[in-house]
Amino acid sequence: MKSLLLNSGVSMPCIALGSWAGSAPKERARASSWLLTGLEAGYRHIDTAGLYGTEGAVGEAIRQSGIARQDLFVTTKLPWHHTKRVRESIEESLKRTGLDYFDLYLIHWPQTLVYENDNPTPLNADGSLALDESCDFNDTWREMEKALASGKVKSIGVSNFSIKTLEQLLKTAKVMPAVLQIEIHPYLVQNELVKWCKDKDIVVVAYAATGYAVVREDPTIIALASKYNVTPTQIVLSWHIGRGTGIVTKSENVGRQKENLEVIELHEEDARRIDALDKNRRLSIKPDKQGRMFGWSFDRLGWQEEHAPHTEVKL
Ligand SMILES: NC(=O)c1ccc[n+]([C@@H]2O[C@H](COP(=O)([O-])OP(=O)(O)OC[C@H]3O[C@@H](n4cnc5c(N)ncnc54)[C@H](OP(=O)(O)O)[C@@H]3O)[C@@H](O)[C@H]2O)c1
After folding, report:
1. Ligand 1 atom having least distance to the Cα of 249
2. What is the pLDDT of residues 281-301, one digit of tens each?
3. CA distance 139 to 161
4. Which of 252, 284, 285 shows the shortest CA–CA distance to 19?
5. Where in this chain does the record put each NADP-dependent oxidoreductase domain (predicted)?
6. CB-based burial, 102-130: b 16+ in 10 Å, e otherwise
7. Which of 249, 261, 286 should be mutated for ligand 1, with most atoms under 8 A from CB?
8. Which of 109, 150, 234, 267 reaches 20 to 30 Å from 243, CA-CA?
9. Backbone angles phi, psi at 189, to 5 degrees
């Protein structure tokens, strides 16, 4: 599988299998069976997070696969309520997976939530998420840099950051993030941020990379699928790889897992046709009624307001 070289010197397989499995403990535990079929189908990069509750399932699937650790790339993420306890949180994630290092460790979100009995969604009396303003991501990054020096994580990066928050991070960072993981698909192409990262040698990884059914059913994507004799998803995933970004896709179905590994080369003019589909529309995570994403406004996140209102998304 094609790889991308990170600024840490580590090589990262450019297609990862995602492991978000919903919030039900049963579903999360069941993830080990479809993560195993993914490894058997050829995935060598698995994306998980402390918040997903699937680190144990990832470890289980890896053990069952019999694949040597050095042949795998495992990404996990620091939960937003653990930002003051980076070292402890890494140890806990390692314990859950049964691994002794992670290839990539990301700050999952720029915001810090209160740490309270390890509850990932601590609430204020009014029902809003309880933010902890006594810690910022510059503080957390210093601890991430220490974790890198410890060897328990081979590369460090961030997720859901923007040019605004990355610029703030770089004011104090000694180590440049190796990766930025964000939502990208043909309806949210993020050209400016992708270019900014390229200039800084930060590899961008797209989540919600398929763009779900709404993008699969776009007439331009359907026409290109027919032109190249591949599926609409393969057109979308090939577009990502062609622009030099990594992707994380999740499927529980072995047929779709295999489909998502088969990318092709698109002609330049077809890639530009896909670029032109941009609607600056987020499909993955919805802001709350006040327009906040997990307690932060779009302005604070440095995210552009969307051109279109958020609608229900068919997966
Ligand atoms: N950093 C972050 O904040 C963040 C946020 C969101 C996600 N992520 C990561 O990114 C991963 C993927 O994100 P995502 O699940 O939102 O996006 P996705 O992989 O683009 O979409 C997954 C959905 O699409 C379906 N699907 C997958 N491949 C398909 C295909 N070829 N044809 C038709 N349907 C297909 C899956 O159903 P089936 O399972 O039935 O195939 C599932 O419902 C997550 O698991 C997680 O690891 C990270």
Report:
1. 19
2. 999 988 888 889 999 999 999
3. 15
4. 252
5. 15-278
6. bbbbbbbbbbbbbbeeeeeebeeeeeebb
7. 249
8. 109
9. -80, -25
- Name which of 217, 162, 155 is nearest 186 in CA terms: 217
**In terms of residue numbers, what domain contains 112?**
3-301
The alpha carbon of residue 198 and the mean position of all alpha carbons in its chain are separated, in whole angstroms, by 17
Taking alpha carbons only, the member of 74, 48, 42, 12 closest to residue 261 is: 42
For all residues of the chain together, what is the average pLDDT? 96
> Taking the CA atoms of the chain, what radius of gyration do you get in angstroms?
19
Does residue 251 belong to any structural domain of this protein?
A: yes
Q: What number does the ligand 1 atom closest to the CA of 211 have? A: 20
Note whether residue 309 is domain-resident: no
Residue 312 lies in a domain: no
159-177 pLDDT tens trace:
999 999 999 999 999 999 9
Active site residue 52: yes
Q: Give, using CA atoms, the residue closest to atom 10 of ligand 1.
A: 207
Assess whether the C-beta atom of 259 lies below 6 angstroms from ligand 1: yes
Q: Ligand 1 within 6 A of 210 CB? A: yes
> Residue 131 forms beta bridges with which residues?
113
Q: Interior CA angle at 99 toward 5 and 94, to 5°?
A: 100
- Please tell me the predicted confidence (pLDDT) of residue 98: 98
- Tokens at 72, concatenated: 């795998």
Q: Has residue 114 been placed in a domain?
A: yes
CATH of the domain at 226: 3.20.20.100
Q: Where are the beta strands (DSSP E) in the chain?
A: 3-5, 11-13, 15-18, 45-47, 73-78, 104-107, 156-159, 179-183, 203-207, 246-249
C-beta of residue 234 within 8 angstroms of C-beta of residue 259: yes
Is the CB of residue 258 below 6 angstroms from any atom belonging to ligand 1?
Answer: no
pLDDT at 306: 74
Per-residue pLDDT of 50-73, as tens digits, reads 999 999 999 999 999 999 999 999
Burial class of residue 258 in the structure, from the number of CB atoms within 10 Å of its CB (0-12 exposed, 13-18 middle, 19+ buried): middle
